[in-house]
Amino acid sequence: MQTNVLEYLEQTLPRVPDKVAFADDNTQLTFAQVSQNARAVGSALHADGLSGEPVVVFMEKSPAAINAFFGVIYAGCYYVPLDVEMPAFRIEMILEQLHPRAVICDAVTQPQLQNFGYTGKSYLFDEIVKTPVDDAALAQIRAKQLDIDPIYIVFTSGSTGVPKGILACHRSVIDYIENLSETLGFNSETVFGNQTPLYFDACLKELYPTLKFGATTWLVPKQCFSFPIQLVEYLNAHRINTICWVVSALTMISATGTFRTVRPETLHTVAFGSEVFPVKQFRMWREVLPEAKFTNLYGPTEATGMSCYYHVEREFGDTEAIPIGRPFRNTGIILLDENNKEAAFGEPGEICIRGTCLTMGYFGQPEKTAEVFTQNPLQTRFPELIYRTGDIAHYNADGDLVFVSRKDYQIKHMGHRIELGEIEINCGLFDGVEAVGCIYDKQKGKIVLFYTGPAEKAALASYLKQRLPRYMQPNRIRQIDAMPHTPNGKLDRKALTALYETE
Amino acid sequence: MNEIRGTIIEILQDLHEDVDFENETRLIDDKILDSFDIVTLISELSNEFDVTIPADKIIPENFNSADALTKMITELEDE
Q1: Which of A13, A340, B51, B72 could form a disulfide with B62 if both were Cys (CB 3.0 to 4.6 A apart)?
Q2: How many domains does chain B have?
Q3: If you measure CA to CA, which chain B residue comes closest to A251?
Q4: Model pTM score
Q5: What is the complex's ipTM, to 2 decimals?
């Protein structure tokens, strides 16, 4: 039985040592190189006494950064990818939670570390890959590793203003990769075109299947996602056949009429998720790729990658929502109503997930973890955890799950999961801001921030850029005279929405 | 022309309150605008000026400055 994600790499290596595993415009790493580099990094970290602790990977998105992840796992540690474009304030907040003793950098990021008050050890990736591999030590580490040991932490938006680190183990990732691969039909011929950043769990879809099958992943340059013709030409040039992208990246291509100029020639598998795919746009994709398999994916980071899938095989009406479908094999979904009872068929309920896919919770935040990882209320005679997603869904007549709404103020914006509360808290800290309220215009995909007080709009905007990542920046900032409240004193978001709509 | 430019600056300013769009000429090259912004910009410009911006116009050169955007929109309106 497989108990470690690195077994994917070790089993594939003798089959295709010289095949390219991970590539971008600058670098191509073969499986032999990935293995050599990862074992060297693992040996170096181990030699410095690191074990069973977080190791931050603070590198530009690149094949080398991915390679560093595997090196960290070889050392028996878990990797924490940090976005190089993340504001310094947020990085400091994350480092404070982790207290890492080691950070792996590249030449560009290493000098930046001092800005964050980090005093631990930093390693230059290009240097530590020269470390002689200590296979005996790596074997000893492996012998002690369990499949319930963590392999990564990814940080997500927290409603209290502090990002939450979600910790996942080997077993959950293996469970996910096996079932995702079966569902989407990955194999050794698969050529992935990666869009999602490396600092979320979304990139698991490409990283581990590449190791498992001896496939290839191209990291598509970020700028391509601004310019649709470039993007499709890139897919064709690298013979990319499989993409798992956020919906907005796909609609950007179809909505601008790109297909009249250039069509994807090799693409046969298109997975998307996190957002509603407008049916009109979807039809354009279907028309240009009639033979391709299109799959809607759904899942929270807390349940390791994705949890449900729906193969889009029938026609949809213009206003009909594409379902999120059914759970992967070995994942269970329960819809719970407000009384913690199973919702009747067709009635809305909170999506609760059970299975090996459940992550280990929030790093260093036991109370937050206990709020949403709870005992299954339908079964109380032995310990069994479920994860409460906060997503409301119902079953349609076909027995497929359909997403309805959120229970709280978490939103999905351009594929990113954001707590409006986190934006509000950060905005409220700015001098001259008195009251804050944030809403999300779903139709147009805009985060709208309202505030009262004498603060200048431009100064507030640039302050927020220092505190919040790019994707959390408000798209509209409005200064108002008074913040509307409900009769019981809560922020009245409905009134704000009305205010915004009458603009 | 000036009117179009003024409206474009307003739309840009809404994206980033703190950028000097009057004078900035390397919006793409300096990564001031990212793919989120481009997607937003395309939809807002299309609505505001009632034009369709075809994919072959969505190239870095046309998005580097308010002037380049104005030129593109003016040409599309004339078509």
Answers
A1: B72
A2: 1
A3: B39
A4: 0.92
A5: 0.88
